[in-house]
Amino acid sequence: MGAYVTWTLEVLAFATFVVLAVLMPYARRKRDYWTNRGVPVAAGYRSLTNMLPGFRLHDRSLSRHRDDAKAAGATALGLFDGGRPTALACDLRVAAAALGNDGFTEAETTGGRETSLVPSAVDACAAIAVLPTMTVCVAELVTSLEAVANRRLTISPWTEVKNCATTVVATCVYGQPMVDSRIKTFAEQCDKALSDGGRGRPTITDYFASYDLSSDGRASSTDFKQIFRAAARCSDQIDADVADKQVRLDMFKFVTGTIEQTAALVTGVLYELANNQSIQNHLREHLDSELDEHQQQVTIDQLDRLPYLENVLKETLRKYPLVTVVCRMTTKSYVVPGTSGNGTIEPNTLIVVPVHALHHDAEHFSEPENFQPHRFPGQMSSAYMPYGSGSQSYIGKHFVELEAKLIVAMLVSRYEVHLDKDNPCTSPDSLDPRSFAGVRVTVVNRSGVREARMYTSLRQLHNDVVKNASDRKFLFF
After folding, report:
1. What CATH number is given to the structural domain containing 289?
2. Which domain holds residue 11?
3. Where are the beta strands (DSSP E) in 70-203?
4. Overall number of domains in the chain
5. Which residues sit opposite 326 in a β-bridge?
């Protein structure tokens, strides 16, 4: 028995020695990785736990790390993401270099992955082509809120806009009006794909795998499957099977990348307008100069003549960017500015541009936590990148921005929105997409508000007259 115990202890001691012999060089190599390259390391990233493959870098921590780097005068900071060396761009010079094409590439395309066709296919012209389709769906949304507004009820903008955006996207993908049952099926498939961090991807991929991509000869400018197919034919993907696969993948990216982002953008706008009544009133006056309160059709020319609406959307995207982080990969050694040539980021290293942190930096945007649409275009900065940057920037940016602009224009021109003071809602947080679903606003019909204000004004006038008459011992009423 004693011999067995001794043998067991010897085995454990040998195993411990082997583990330490392997682990210590790994820990030493990781610990000294950034310092050996002349790049400062973020506070707390010298411990082994932060360098292990299971430890992931969280977007919320990037602002804190960047603030620490700025205080120390560092332009870049060394981090680890899942055990992988990752550089944080803390200065606009580093961010601009990373977003350029010289020495950097899209992180998603490394390893031969195909570049999506969507950014080039769904351009501003393609988005404008579907404006009539958008207008019909948005008009239905606005009309459906009439009863809600008359009773001054509270709604979830996220839910209402998401349903509207689903109908718009489905109509554009199929290139024809959708019946309710088909919309419901489409929405269920999208929800599965979007749920739980995208683990439903095979579901939506299979859904489009059985979808007929052939043209029936009636293709229109709103038929996005034909837009994607045309982009595939113009690319280097000659093989028909490869082109079809790319089209299906792009359709998946377009669908899952526009519905919830449209809902998030509009929700952010309505929350800020409800929280800033003076801004809302100014926007409404701005809208009244171009739109009729009950207008059912809005043209692109009218939207182009609404610069303050554009500023409201820009400020919302600054405060709640749709892309909070942009990742790039170095293709050659990059010398970090401000290190006297001693700081180097080696090839095949991930570099992170903290978009959210840049948007909330007083150096680039004064009073960054305040919602100030008038800061544009005067405070426009190269730090502003709400959709990301490069060929892999946010895939549906033109589509989402146009739809959001249309929804806000038609809603605010017809209704007023207020926060429910008795039941405070969750404020949106772009670092937590789920927070947008917790926003609640009260919708009020403008005609009802005008009548209430007129009644209040008349009562005040009556009281003033009575008071004046009483003072003179003479009553008019």
Report:
1. 1.10.630.10
2. 1-106
3. 76-81, 84-89, 104-106, 154-155
4. 2
5. 353
**pLDDT values of the chain reduced to their tens digit, one per residue, 477 residues:** 566 666 666 667 656 655 555 555 555 556 678 888 888 887 765 555 555 565 677 788 888 888 888 888 889 998 888 778 889 999 999 998 888 878 888 775 433 345 566 667 777 887 888 888 889 889 999 999 999 999 999 999 999 999 999 888 888 777 666 667 777 777 777 777 666 444 444 455 555 655 556 555 554 556 677 777 777 766 655 566 667 777 777 777 788 788 889 999 999 999 999 999 999 999 999 999 988 766 678 888 999 999 999 999 999 999 999 889 988 999 999 999 988 888 899 999 999 999 999 999 998 999 999 999 999 888 878 889 888 766 556 677 888 999 999 999 999 999 999 998 777 778 899 888 889 999 999 999 986 544 444 444 445 554 555 455 555 443 433
68 CB neighbour count, 10 Å cutoff: 16
- Listed in sequence order, the residues at least 6 apart from 317 whose beta carbon sits closer than 8 Å to its beta carbon are 265, 386, 387
Same domain for 190 and 72: no
- 18 belongs to a structural domain: yes
Q: Tell me the three state secondary structure of residue 339.
A: coil
Q: Are 59 and 127 in the same domain?
A: no
Write 148-151 long-range contacts (CB < 8 A, 24+).
Answer: 148/443, 149/414, 149/415, 149/443, 149/444, 149/445, 149/448, 150/445, 150/448
- Burial call 2-41: b when 16+ CB within 10 Å, e when fewer: eeeeeeeeeeeeeeeeeeeeeeeeebeebbebbeebbbbb
In-domain check, residue 113: no
Is position 234 within any domain? Answer: yes
Examine the domain organization and report whether 132 and 29 are in the same domain. no
Q: Do 134 and 81 share a structural domain?
A: no
